[in-house]
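The material for today's practical consists of a large collection of protein records. There is nothing in a record beyond a sequence line and a structure line. Backbone structure tokens are a discrete shorthand for how the chain folds in space. Nothing more is needed to start thinking about how sequence determines fold. As an example, a complete record with its sequence and its structure tokens follows.
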Amino acid sequence: MNAEAVYGTVLTAGLISAFSLYNPGLPVLIARTIGTVLVFWGAHVYAEIVGNRAMSWREAVREGLQRSAGLLWALIVPVACLTAAALLGLSMDAAVDISLWGGVVTLAILGWWAARQRNDPALVKVVTAAATAGMGLALIALKALVH
């Protein structure tokens, strides 16, 4: 699930950043983000099913759902940040910034976790966490350039 969670977190952050350019309001931004990630998730599940020719249909569906779950888990932190910001009455810019930074933290944790699962030394864990978080930082930098 880790690879899909990383991909899903980067995808979700990128969508939030891109959709926020149109300033649709936080409820619409949340709905568009969730809807688009659901479409990507569905496509990922379908591709897994079609690609697993050696398995029965039922096994391929189960495998596809399990392998793709990280895409859905990746929605939690960024969408929770947007929702909390909306409930607190924060501006669109503040909500998006909080959400993107939530994605950076999520990516750092996912990187750390991946290195931990490999029993890597502490320095490798830190470097892996930083490198993974760097993808989120790149999205923040791109957002700053576009805005």
Notes: The first helix runs from residue 2 to 20. The chain has a mean pLDDT of 92. The helical segments are 2-20, 26-51, 57-73, 76-87, 92-117, 122-146. Residues 113 and 125 are 8 Å apart (CA to CA).
